[in-house]
Every structure is written in structure tokens, then in C-alpha cells.
Write a structure and sequence with these properties.
- The protein has three domains: 122 residues, Rossmann fold (3-Layer(aba) Sandwich), CATH 3.40.50.12160; 229 residues, tm_1862 like domain (pyruvate-formate lyase- activating enzyme), CATH 3.80.30.20; 69 residues, Beta Barrel (OB fold (Dihydrolipoamide Acetyltransferase, E2P)), CATH 2.40.50.
- The relative contact order is 0.08.
- Strand 5, helix 5 and strand 6 form a beta-alpha-beta unit.
- Helix content is 32%, strand content 24%.
- The strands form five sheets. The protein has a six-stranded parallel β-sheet, sandwiched between helices. Strands 15-16-17-19-18 form a five-stranded mixed β-barrel.
- It is of the alpha/beta class and 448 residues long.
- Bound molecules: iron/sulfur cluster.
- Iron/sulfur cluster binds next to helix 6.
Length: 448
């Protein structure tokens, strides 16, 4: 039996791609092993969103330099593979396969070439209208599942590598997405997350012609589907119909991640984000004006080339105006092939760090305030795990908040019984900046 080891870096798209790559390898007769030392084939699914992420794979490969020519085969796939291409063979001669995500549909053929002894196998074409739609997906989680609905991106944000590493947008047919979602529900899944670099620009290529809001609502109407999430959105393509669908359908989680990146129109234009601050704020007003209490999260980049103190103040002002439930904050990182690489007025690293800390502190105060209002409320959670150290169960609310809670009686360790995958009502008794805490409401097991 051929053995393989896979390590995944980066985003949920990569995590789900790896589930499909694993499924394809198993279908091709490979067995997955726990460590690279045990494996005949070592696969790194890579991320190139920032320089630090990119360097990780080369650090790994360096550790195995001594393995060159000893029968162990190395494969580099994903965004660094697409970005660096055949240069990887020069930098790490013990690598035998380099393939970007747009070539995963050809993985079986590439494996055959490897098994035939070819040590310079590549899959680097971005010229495809196919999404990686495969029946062979090995899912890591038995309760929550990812479904990729669109791959690639047609936008050209000045700091982003994705259009160069994942290629043009390719939407799956609504039929194939619905078939996958129904099959998951039939196998006991109650929560799915629809994935795409920009899910909002989903457009069903078949004559059905659904847009994202229509697809979202139809997935939410599948019997047995209790929670539907989606990521990542782009303000330019974020339409009111999405909010109306969330407001109407309880199965659609009341959480929206809408990356803004900056509060300054000057910086948004330089970033080529294709929306203004006002256009962005209109979408926030839509979310705040509906009945359901929608949690809003975002991404912020600090230290983008040319960002003045005044631009930065406008970002801080926007954060104070929206009051996000949480956010990812990044320091601008120079990336190959991107427009901003050529921009003058690069911000010094220590100034980027100062701005990052200022945003972190401001957002922390907001999160403390926003989470405090949950104390005394009863929230339904989907149980994700158990923390032995704190003797607490880890739950997630529909708004994507972590709610750690105690539940009595604790299932006996030898009972094989667990709460993971169940839905329970939990009374919130404490709140911190990043999570809530509470106790389960006796007898309120919503779904097992
Ligand atoms: S929308 Fe912009 S930031 Fe998002 S993946 Fe596309 S190019 Fe990158």
C-alpha cells in the first residue's frame, strides 16, 4: 500500500482542497499516515497570502533535503506551487510534483506520472473553467462540512496574490452544490459552510442561473440543515438579497464576514477594492436594520503603501462606527505579481506594528463591550469539542461566537457518549473579549 502524509497551510479553502486531495489519493490506492517520516509521498498544500506563510513550506522542505534520491517523493501544491512554479525544483531539487489548485482535477494523471518515475511533474495551467468538483472528499469533521461553490477571483486587489495563484472565477452548477449539500444532510451533517474567495460573485453556469442569495436560501431549505455559513464576501458584490435571505431563514447563520480592509477612500482606491467607504457602510446599515441580530466581522490591513496618519485615523473611526464583533488584522505584506509591490512610500515595519497594536487595543475594548450584552441570555450552541483542562464543552453560536460551557451530568468517559455535534441551549454567565462562558440549560438538548 502506497502511503502519503499531507500538511495544509492557510485558509479554509486550502483545508477543504486538502480534504478533496486526500479523498482522491485514497481513491487511487494510497493510505494516509500521521508523519512525513512514515510516508512514501509527502504533500504540502501551501499558502502564499503573506511572505511568512510562503517561507513555511521551504523551511519544511529544507528539513528533508537529506532525503533526496532515497525514494521519498515530495509534492508541493496550492498557492506557492502556482506562484513559484518550476522555480521550486531549483530551490528544492528533491521535490517531484508542483501543482496549483486549478490543476487538481488532473491529480490522478499526475500521480500516474509520479509512479512511472517522472520526477518533474507539474500542473500549473490557470486556463480552466472547471472547479475541483469530486465525489472523493475525505472530511475531517463529521458534523460540519465545507462546500466550495466558486473558485478563483476576477478582482485585482492591489495586495492580493489569489488571482495569480487560483486563477479566474469558476462557479459550480447549483445542481452539483445542492446534490452535495443534500447528500451531506442525508449523512447526518447539520451544518455546512459555503466557500469561495468571493462567494458573492457566485453565478450558476447552468441555465438555472441562480445567484449567491438564491443558492444560499436553497441550501438553507434542505431538510435537516440547521446551520449554513459562508465565507468570504466582497462588499462590491454583496447585495441586499443576501441579508433578506438571512433575515427570513433561521437556518442561515446570523453572521456575516465582510472584509473592509481600510476606512479611507484614498487607501481603498489604491487597494483597488472597487467600493467607497459610503458604499461599504450602506451594506452595514442593511445588516443593522433587519430583525435578526447579525454579528459582523471583518479584515483590516494596516500599513498599506502610502497610508498616512489621517488615512489610519479614518480606519479607526470606521471601526468605532461599525463596532465589529471581531476582526482579523494584518500588516501589509509585499507579495509577488501584485500591483502594490511597485507602489512607492512603503510603510516602515515598526510603524506597521504600532498601527496593528492600536487597532488591536481599540477592537479589544469594542469586543468586551459587545460580548457583555450576552450575559444573562440563552444561546443555542453547536457543540464542537471538550476542553479537559477547564472541564468545559466548546460550543459555537449561530453568530459564530465561541461559548464555553459546563454541562451536568458529564457523560461517563466509557459511555462513548459525547455532546460533540449536538445542539444545546446555554445560559451565558460570563463574557470576555474573545469568547463567552456559561452553563447548559437543563433538559434543553435541542438536537442530538
Ligand atoms: S477579492 Fe481581492 S482580496 Fe479577495 S481574493 Fe479577490 S483579489 Fe484577493
Amino acid at each position: 500500500m502506497k502511503t502519503f502524509y499531507i500538511e495544509t497551510f492557510g485558509c479554509q479553502m486550502n483545508a477543504h482542497d486538502s480534504e478533496k486531495v486526500v479523498g482522491t489519493l485514497v481513491q487511487q490506492g494510497y493510505a494516509q499516515v500521521e508523519t512525513p517520516d512514515q510516508a512514501e509521498l509527502v504533500v504540502y498544500n501551501t499558502c502564499s497570502i503573506r511572505d511568512k506563510a510562503e517561507q513555511k513550506v521551504f523551511h519544511r522542505l529544507q528539513q528533508f533535503k537529506k532525503e533526496a534520491g532515497k525514494g521519498k517523493v515530495f509534492a508541493v501544491i496550492g498557492c506557492v506551487a502556482q506562484q513559484e512554479g518550476e522555480r521550486i525544483f531549483e530551490r528544492a531539487p528533491h521535490v517531484s510534483l508542483v501543482a496549483g489548485s486549478a490543476s487538481y482535477t488532473k491529480l490522478p494523471q499526475m500521480l500516474v506520472q509520479l509512479e512511472a518515475g517522472n520526477r518533474r511533474v507539474t500542473g500549473l495551467s490557470l486556463d480552466t473553467d472547471e472547479a475541483f468538483d469530486t465525489p472523493f472528499t475525505r472530511r475531517d469533521n463529521p458534523h460540519r462540512a465545507y462546500i466550495t461553490i466558486i473558485e478563483g477571483c476576477d478582482k485585482s486587489c492591489a495586495y492580493c496574490v489569489v488571482p495569480f495563484t487560483r486563477g479566474p472565477e469558476r462557479s459550480r452548477t447549483s445542481d452539483s452544490v445542492m446534490r452535495e449539500a443534500k447528500d451531506l444532510a442525508a449523512h447526518g451533517y447539520t451544518e455546512v459552510q459555503l466557500l469561495g474567495q468571493n462567494v458573492n460573485s457566485y453565478r450558476d453556469p447552468s441555465e438555472t442561473g441562480w445567484d449567491f442569495a438564491r443558492l444560499l436560501e436553497n441550501v438553507g431549505n434542505i431538510p435537516g440543515m440547521r446551520r449554513v455559513r459562508f465565507t468570504t464576501s466582497h462588499p462590491r458584490d454583496f447585495v441586499k438579497e443576501i441579508i433578506d435571505a438571512i433575515d427570513r431563514n433561521q437556518a442561515l447563520c446570523n453572521h456575516v464576514h465582510l472584509p473592509v480592509q481600510s476606512g479611507s477612500n484614498r487607501v481603498l482606491a489604491a487597494m483597488q477594492r472597487q467600493y467607497t467607504r459610503d458604499e461599504y457602510m450602506r451594506r452595514i446599515e442593511w445588516m443593522k436594520s433587519v430583525n435578526r441580530d447579525i454579528a459582523i466581522t471583518t479584515d483590516i490591513i494596516v500599513g498599506f503603501p502610502g497610508e498616512t496618519e489621517r488615512d489610519f485615523d479614518e480606519t479607526l473611526d470606521l471601526i468605532g462606527t461599525v463596532e465589529y464583533d471581531s476582526m482579523f488584522i494584518f500588516k501589509y505584506s509585499k507579495r509577488p505579481n501584485t500591483a502594490a509591490l511597485q507602489y512607492e512610500d512603503q510603510i516602515p515595519e515598526d510603524e506597521k506594528t504600532r498601527r496593528l497594536i492600536v487597532v488591536q487595543e481599540k477592537q479589544r475594548a469594542i469586543q468586551i463591550r459587545r460580548n457583555a450584552v450576552y450575559v444573562g441570555r440563552t444561546e443555542e450552541v453547536h457543540v464542537e469539542g471538550y476542553n479537559k483542562a477547564t472541564s468545559q464543552w466548546i460550543g459555537r453560536t449561530s453568530q459564530n461566537k465561541t461559548l464555553n460551557f459546563v454541562h451536568a451530568p458529564l457523560p461517563a468517559p466509557d459511555s462513548g457518549r459525547t455532546l460533540v455535534g449536538d445542539y444545546l441551549d446555554v445560559l451565558v454567565t460570563r463574557a470576555g473579549p474573545n469568547s463567552l462562558a456559561g452553563e447548559s440549560v437543563a433538559g434543553h438538548v435541542v438536537l442530538q
